[in-house]
Protein: Putative YigZ family protein
Amino acid sequence: MIEKDTYKTLSKPSDDVLYKEKNSKFFGYAFPVTSEDAVKIHLEALKKQHHSARHWCYAYQIGTQENHYQFRVNDDGEPNNSAGMPIYGQIQSFEVTNVLIVVVRYFGGVKLGVGGLISAYKTAAQLALEHSKIVTRTINQDIELKFEYKDMNKVMRIIKEKKLKIKNQTLELDCTINISVRLKKAKDVLKAFEAIFGVDAKVLND
Structure:
């Protein structure tokens, strides 16, 4: 089985969308995120922006490979699984990751029931994603190269031939170069460097 080396995410935050149901207002937002700290920042900003709302329900998923996904759902006072899970269902449906979706609810005086809530939160999350620009990105692996300065030309030749991206480098008597390689090419690139005597190549984010 060939390991998947692309993922879908958002290029920028969505515009806010509004869904109304029986006088309740549901504002949907989608954000690209790569950490829990970023999630907290967006939630705090929305709570300030919508300080008179009743609920700030959300779901997020972080990670680029299925077996390493980190996700969380939050009903924020709504009945169990009536808000966070329907929102998360849309993240799965659109097959996006590194994403946070928040739906802010203003209560309109009429109870919607669990079924009505599930439908409303799902729709608001769907609209937020439909109003987002979804992009496909590659999953990359970082490789560290350690070698002596005398082997510089051999190393740089492979970097140039394979069009590899240098992330950072320290070029002294003992040299270190960190490169970023698309996942499916990583094994071949490692082999190419390991074939050079005196070059130590290792994967950093396996």
